[in-house]
Amino acid sequence: MDFNVKKLASDAGVFFTRAVQFTGEKFGQVEKTELDAHFENLLSRADSTKNWTEKIFRQTEVLLQPNPSARIEEFLYEKLDRTVPSRPNNGELLGHYMQDAAKDFGPGTPYGSTLIKVGDCERRLGGAQREFLQTSAISFLAPLRNFLEGDWRTISKERRLLENRRLDLDSSKARLKKAKLAESKAACEGEAVPDFQETRPRNYVLSASASALWSEEVDKAAHELRVAQTEFDRQAEVTRLLLEGISSTHVNHLRCLHEFVEAQTAYYKQCYLHMQDLQKELGRFPNAFAGNPGLSMASGGSSPQGNATLPQDAASAVETDTLKIEEVQAPATGTRKAKVLYDYDAADTSELSLLADELITVYTVPGMDSDWLVGERGNQKGRVPVTYLELLS
Description:
2 domains; five-stranded antiparallel β-sheet; elongated
């Protein structure tokens, strides 16, 4: 083992000197080299960037994975450089439960068939969420993590080196100042034994004059000051370049933020469309409750005609379902213009296909479901979903 006692003693001496200098600065007993205003602004901006990036990163992790146990598990797998085991998310798990329940209740029953449709939708929602999480982790979380664990660590290391160089520089300034004062005092008082404890202890030949010894000490202190100033200037330039790179970091994070918003927008739009399709599919079965014998029993009465008596809402649904669109006439008043928000493919001949951004005329028909309107485009007419429209005044 290469154990260098001289180097160990030298490092300990440097550390002690820096500690003394730092303590003196804190108590205002020694001078401190101040950085220029531009450099201070760069330092403040870098600290602010680090602090807010860390907060945004942590809160985004909470948003994407609300379960703290799962976050800890993912963190451990990442540190161990292992792949996180794949597991179904809440939406996918709910979809599986619903479809398994449908098999048990009977897929041919109204409840079973509806469970199958809703379960399939929940599984698609879970898949969309999984895709959103993966995209966000790659396009947003990874760059933020790389900055905190890469660039910021480099900046912090160089800043610590700069602080050490500054302490060495200020210590050299103080040593030179004391040596000059001692030299002036020796020149005025004649021969005197120098107090080496105030500058730098060395073994000197005491036969020389005190003034000559102090002049030599001043030269050495001046040389050390020049070396310390050179090292400080070089380290300050390196640190300045790294701090100015924060502007590039902001540009990169801005691009990542746009990608995160786009991924989130696509995710919520996909979820909305899945739910719209599910709602439309469920709306095609207005008589589903009529076939449920439990509904008649729960109503508190029996009918000799079985299911001939329907609730008022169900009767309205049947009436709307049997409404012939071609026979509907536009009212004299009450028509409005509407802008189509999304493309829509008609499910049957009673509906009107739509193209995004086109303008159509819409109006209501007594007895029609409130989620639908009658739309006209030239000679074409049909039912259109309200959620796909922006009604204009």
